[in-house]
Amino acid sequence: MSVSMGVAVNIVRQYLIAFIAAPIGGMIADKMGSSINYLKIALTLGTILTGIYLVIPTTMGIVVVVGLMLVLAAVMMTIRGTYYATTDEIQIPIVMSGAAAGILSIVGNTPDLFIFTLYGYFMDAYPGIQGYRYIFIAMMVFAVLGVGCCFLLAHMKKKIKSN
Fold it and tell me: pTM score, two decimals?
């Protein structure tokens, strides 16, 4: 893909899809009645979609690869419309909601501190397709950790309801 096409796809992914997907994620979670359950599904789907990159032939056309990337971006962006809603489900008091949002922001954005360095390392140490494979594996690991956190939150929610 040319640099200009890459920039155009990134603009669509970063701005258009994010603008549309986040509120859609919130609406889906509302329809489901649980942002925690929605997050489990979205992160699992994101793991599967990312895993496709590990098995897709390198000769696959650019349209398929970019299409998959845009679908994956849409799924991941729907998460942005739901992750703060988990505080309500586990009954964080409203007076603590600001602190809870701050802690969520720290935890949720911590990968931004090291992820680009890690991905750069993968690309330098494992040139070509192998570096990308390691990046996709790391993405899958983070998504699976997110699913694990959702199960922990669901357990906390169940415990709160039983009290």
Answer: 0.88
